[in-house]
Write a structure and sequence with these properties.
Threonyl-tRNA Synthetase, Chain A, domain 2, Elongation Factor Tu (Ef-tu), domain 3, Diaminopimelate Epimerase, Chain A, domain 1, alpha+beta, 3 domains, six-stranded mixed sheet
């Protein structure tokens, strides 16, 4: 059984160990040491990465109490001494994120008695699922503020090993199901949790917790959050974007919302004016398109691309054009096809759409005189024309 060095010292990044198992599995090399500082994927926390004897370890798993290091090439043979180096940046990120999760979960209990039922610690963000059907904005803000206050208080993060009887005397946030010695993470006096993950030594090492999104999941609330280096990276990205926009729009950052609200309203007005203009020009456009109609198996048709046309207007254009030529109009607008069919011919738009779906794996449908399909590609109009002609010739 592998000795887990991170259990007692999550700050440990360099270590030495002896290979007790080395084998190949599914084309990869699997190495087990007598002791390791590498954390395996477990408890919602992803694995460490790093090096064993300069060999890159890209995955770490657990099996029957042994920690398995996965690599593309062999680390060594049984009995070899190896030196391990854990990726410091990745370890720091997950120590911060995992400790932040404990604080956030504890705060939601302290403030509202909302229990955490599941945890996700990802490479982009962390998430806790609360057994609660809804959450108010002010509750979210209060929880975030209190969590960050605890961070600023520099609360010590301690590792406690306790047997079942000792654990029962502690105010654990959740009673553990396992027996024997239990590893407990204690953060000041605000949280006691049975946990095998890696954590900070002090709450101040987290730096910051920022809630970024809230969504419904299984009638519960899922809260996505950032912490530490992840929050700093997100801030840097947002600063770069807002700084660039404020310079382009020649306004202060706190004026960006008002400026964009104005731009959006102006854009709506311009779009309404554009659509009105397109409506007025529609008869002319229909006449021009009808002049270029073709015929196959006795049925007139037009295939053409249109740009910058309102989608509802494009549907009207297709059906009106089809009526004008007494046949079929196939209009490509960006990534969709609109099919208009004149009522006087004995083929329906939905049947043509069904054939397009079968031939080109496009998705959509419609009725007798109009159908729409999505997933088309620009520059492929000739291909869509060939399919339409094939359909007409097979009648």
């Amino acid at each position: 059984m592998t000795e887990r060095l991170y259990y007692k010292d999550p700050a440990l990044l360099s270590f030495e160990g002896t290979i007790i198992e080395a084998r190949q599995f599914n084309g990869k090399h699997l190495t087990v040491l007598d002791k390791t500082a590498f954390y395996p994927t477990s408890g919602g926390q992803p694995h460490d990465k790093g090096l064993l004897n300069s060999v890159a370890i890209f995955d770490v798993t657990e099996s029957d109490g042994n920690i398995q290091h996965i690599s593309d090439s062999a680390v060594g043979t049984i009995g070899d001494r190896v030196k391990g180096e854990v990726d410091s940046g990745r370890r720091k990120y997950f120590r911060q994120l995992h400790t932040a999760q404990h604080i956030l979960s504890s705060v939601f209990i302290e403030l509202y008695d909302f229990q955490t039922v599941s945890v996700h610690l990802g490479e982009d963000y962390g998430a806790i699922e609360l057994k609660q059907p809804s959450l108010e904005d002010d509750q979210l803000l209060q929880a975030e503020q209190l969590s960050n206050e605890y961070i600023l208080q520099s609360l010590p993060v301690e590792i406690i090993f306790a047997d079942e009887q000792e654990a029962q005397k502690l105010p654990l946030r959740k009673k553990p199901s396992r027996q024997g010695t239990i590893r407990i993470i204690k953060i000041g006096e605000i949280d006691y949790s049975a946990c095998g993950g890696t954590h900070c030594s002090n709450s101040s090492e987290i730096g910051l917790i920022k809630i970024i999104n809230v969504e419904k999941q299984r009638n519960n609330i899922l809260i996505n959050f950032l912490a530490g280096t992840g929050a700093k990276k997100d801030y840097d990205k947002r600063f770069e974007v807002t700084d660039r926009l404020s310079k382009q729009l020649t306004c202060a950052v706190d004026e960006l919302k008002l400026r964009f609200d104005k731009i959006i309203e102006e854009n709506k007005l311009y779009r309404q004016q554009l659509v009105q203009l397109q409506k007025e020009l529609l008869p002319i456009k229909i006449k021009e398109a009808a002049a270029a109609s073709e015929s196959s198996n006795g049925i007139n048709y037009v295939c053409m691309e249109v740009d910058s046309m309102d989608s509802k207007l494009a549907a009207n254009f297709a059906t009106s054009l089809a009526d004008n030529i007494g046949g079929i109009a196939l209009i490509q607008l960006e990534e969709r096809i609109i099919i208009g069919v004149c009522e006087t011919i004995d083929i329906e738009a939905k049947d043509i759409a069904r054939r397009f779906s079968s031939e080109l794996n496009l998705k959509g449908g419609g009725g007798k005189t109009m159908a729409q399909l999505g997933g088309t590609l620009k520059g492929q109009l000739n291909k869509y024309r060939e399919v339409l002609v094939k359909i007409l010739n097979e009648r």
